[in-house]
């Protein structure tokens, strides 16, 4: 009998985020290898951000509803309609990235947390 192993996952987020906490608890229920990367503790470099943008898009990643977004100047908020400016804002303020972000070993990505979607994703679906 062949043993099927789930893909390796990496969860990106911020440990103080309630949704990230829920996602981490959800992942702990699966017998899978899941790494955790905290944007505040481990940082966010340009290469990682570019991979996330390529996989999900700037609009999907930019959280315009959180406290970090609200603390930005009106000029920064207006400039975020430009993808390059939005990228720079995310580099300078990683907490403005929607979370959690879940990345599978094959490069597929999800942003946000939905148990049904995540269950399918973890099992190799999309």
UniProtKB/TrEMBL annotation:
Protein name per the record: Transcriptional regulator, Spx/MgsR family
Family: Belongs to the ArsC family.
Pfam families: ArsC
Superkingdom of the organism of origin: Bacteria
Listed InterPro entries: Arsenate_reductase-like (IPR006660), Thioredoxin-like_sf (IPR036249), Tscrpt_reg_Spx/MgsR (IPR006504)
CDD domains: ArsC_Yffb
PROSITE patterns: ARSC
SUPFAM superfamilies reported in the protein's UniProt record: Thioredoxin-like
């Amino acid at each position: 009998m062949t043993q099927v192993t789930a893909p390796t996952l990496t969860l990106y987020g911020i440990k103080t985020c309630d949704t990230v906490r829920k996602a981490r608890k959800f992942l702990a229920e699966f017998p899978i290898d899941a790494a955790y990367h905290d944007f505040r503790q481990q940082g966010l470099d340009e290469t990682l951000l570019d991979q996330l943008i390529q996989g999900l898009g700037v609009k999907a990643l930019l959280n315009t509803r959180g406290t970090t977004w609200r603390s930005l100047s009106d000029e920064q908020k207006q400039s975020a309609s430009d993808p390059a400016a939005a990228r720079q804002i995310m580099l300078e303020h990683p907490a403005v990235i929607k979370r959690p972000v879940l990345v599978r070993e094959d490069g597929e990505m999800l942003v946000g947390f939905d148990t049904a979607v995540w269950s399918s994703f973890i099992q190799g679906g999309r």
